[in-house]
Amino acid sequence: MTSVLFQRVALIGIGLIGSSIAINLRERKLAGHIAIATRRKDTLDRAQSLDLGDSYHEDFAEAVAGADLVVLCVPVGACAALTALIAPALAPGAIITDVGSVKGAVVSAMLPHLPANVHFVPGHPIAGTEQSGPEAGFLELFENRWTILTPLENCDKAAVARLQNLWEAMGAMVEVMSPDHHDLVLAIVSHVPHLIAYNIVGTAADLETVTQSEVIKFSASGFRDFTRIAASDPTMWRDIFLTNREAVLEMLTRFSEDLASLQRAIRWGDGDALFDLFTRTRAIRRSIVAAGQDTADANFGRLRQHKDLPGQQ
Ligand SMILES: NC(=O)c1ccc[n+]([C@@H]2O[C@H](COP(=O)([O-])OP(=O)(O)OC[C@H]3O[C@@H](n4cnc5c(N)ncnc54)[C@H](O)[C@@H]3O)[C@@H](O)[C@H]2O)c1
Ligand SMILES: O=C(O)C(=O)C[C@]1(C(=O)O)C=C[C@@H](O)C=C1
């Protein structure tokens, strides 16, 4: 049995993550009032027609006024300007958080604009799909998935606990870590995999000896999975690679070295090296499935059942 955890939640940006939070707040009755603000009138109108909130604002400051929780649900590159815009309107004691996929850069971008009398608790739900826009959200997105919070050392513990309660009420599991550690971990489990997907789909599309229609016609499920990831939002991912540059480059160096070893194993017919690696990686997949962390597959299945879902914001 859940109860109202915040009196007024302001959601800034209402795409996949913002709308999933809105649906959770409403369905689970976690907020007294849901105020929604976003950049484009058209997106706001679509959010309203989906009945995602209680009030809709083109003026960001108006949306956050009186809110005890403000959640930035926008691409990482938009966080600094938006924080500067809303900072003067934040209520004393409010918790301000975000859902950005990179944390170090978000902290550096937001912190200088924030008044001392609010609690800044950056966050990141490790849950998503390749869809964007207010129509893409759904209730189960965060269920049994991790959300990472990266509060600064001097942050009020009660504020962190309140935000943790909210994520848990939305079905998530919560872990706290430093922004830098978050960025390093996410570089290898999320950012580099996306780069690989963008790259392989781009390479296939550029092949002179294989036609576009053959790529589409013969794409087996392995390649198809890459195309799903490579359909992810261009703005969001541009911002991620520009703001988590160091960690991504570090992981790419390791990745390239390991890829070169695989290339060598294939060239010299070293079947044992290939077999050993594939055995280790199969065990990793099986432990992820055993831990119940493969719900993205379930989400993907769910989205496929709704083929008419618009993908644009
Ligand atoms: N999509 C995912 O899988 C996923 C998962 C976890 C976290 N995130 C993070 O969540 C954030 C939002 O991602 P999303 O998937 O919901 O994106 P989305 O594209 O579905 O929605 C983004 C929203 O931000 C608004 N917006 C964009 N630029 C803006 C600007 N300059 N000023 C004001 N509003 C602006 C858009 O109108 C839209 O309402 C990103 O920071 C992303 O890194 C995404
Ligand atoms: O399943 C997907 O489509 C995702 O890419 C989700 C995913 C991920 O890499 O796991 C993407 C970026 C977010 O920051 C968090 C989650």
UniProtKB/TrEMBL annotation:
GO terms for biological process: tyrosine biosynthetic process. Keywords: Amino-acid biosynthesis, Aromatic amino acid biosynthesis, Membrane, NAD, Oxidoreductase, Transmembrane, Transmembrane helix, Tyrosine biosynthesis. It holds the Pfam family PDH_N. Its EC number is 1.3.1.12. It catalyses: prephenate + NAD(+) = 3-(4-hydroxyphenyl)pyruvate + CO2 + NADH. Gene3D superfamilies: 6-phosphogluconate dehydrogenase C-terminal like domain, NAD(P)-binding Rossmann-like Domain. The chain crosses the membrane at residues 6-25. Pathway: Amino-acid biosynthesis; L-tyrosine biosynthesis; (4-hydroxyphenyl)pyruvate from prephenate (NAD(+) route): step 1/1. Residues 7-296 form the Prephenate/arogenate dehydrogenase domain. PROSITE patterns: PDH_ADH. This is prephenate dehydrogenase.
